[in-house]
Amino acid sequence: MAYPIELSWIIVIIVIMAFLFEFMDSSLGMGYGTTLTPILLLMGYEAVEIVPAVLISEFVTGIVSAIFHALFKNMTLGRKRQLKKKMSMDTESVKSNSTSNLPYEVSGGISIPHKKSLKERIQELTLDTQVIYILVIFGILGTLISSIVSATYGYNVNFKFGVKIYIGVMVFGMGILILALRRKQIRFSLKRIITIGAVAGFNKGISGGGYGPLAVSGQILSGREGKNAIASTSLSEGIICFVGASAYILTTVIKSSTSGVPVDWGYLGLAPFLICGAVLSAPLAALTTKSVENRWLKIFVGIATLTLGIFSLTRTILGFTGIWV
Question: Is residue 105 part of a domain?
Fold first, then answer.
């Protein structure tokens, strides 16, 4: 299909913006949807065109970005590496022919494989994999809860304003905390990750943004290294965006079928261009994350989180007053 010259330039600009904002998102774990969405609105696109396109592009690039993060060792997925067997065994254990530590049970002279509990299976996974599971599971739960809340009260202008102020203040506060505690060694806590996953998912479902800044900064404040936090967020957010995009598309199909009109897929027209630009940035972003020292990465994440918080609050207040339409 041939596009007019003006439209062709708009497409080029959209691809470049997707590249730049996804580079920021994949290298620092935040900023893609938060910055791209208002700019597309200013360019004249409707929210119904932007939201599904951003979600789909975040899903695709989240997976691609995660692959490169894993290749560059910013995170380790799968099971923990098996420890090498010791060269010698405890003489006492050998003489007593103890079977208490064997990976199987012995009954009537027959070896029966030991059934591992769910806790044991989880403990076999790498920490990155455990964190991603937690972020995805509790993120989806948070998204579903917030979707119900949004569907119930989303029509209320004051409710929308309050939600956006809440997101902006939270992101701003996380940025302040990261910068204030950047030199402090924080003990890792999986319980904090559960809370972070649920709240980040709630933010994503109720406002369409606020996931990345909270997920990354929250992990760092839970004792995670910056590289691992960024890589884990890229993959978990991609999976959550898949759920969001699927729900959005399914809702559209159901509404069309109940009203007896053909499904109009035109609202997905932005998605290919966003995906094109965003995917191209993934390898460069993962390499950048690997190259930056953790102490500097923590500072960059803190500054980016703080900036996004200020940007979100400013945009919300100006929009509510009618200055930023």
Answer: no
Domain membership of residue 218 as a residue range: 5-76+118-318
d(C-alpha 125, C-alpha 198), whole Å: 21
The token pair that represents 200 in the structure block: 């980040």
Percent of the chain with pLDDT over 90: 21
Tell me how crowded residue 64 is: count the other CB atoms within 10 A of its CB: 22
Of 238, 195, 202, which Cα lies nearest the Cα of 217?
195
* 194 within domain boundaries: yes
| CA nearest neighbour of 31 among 325, 307, 315, 239 | 307
In a domain, 94, yes or no: no
The number of domains in the chain is 1
Do the Cβ atoms of 136 and 263 come closer than 8 Å?
no
In a domain, 100, yes or no: no
pLDDT digits (tens, 9 = 90+) for 86-143: 434 444 444 444 444 545 555 555 555 556 766 677 778 888 999 999 999 988 888 7
| Cα dihedral 33, 38, 312, 150 sign | negative
| Contact call for residues 202 and 138 (beta carbons, < 8 A) | no
Cα 94 from Cα 100, distance rounded (Å): 12
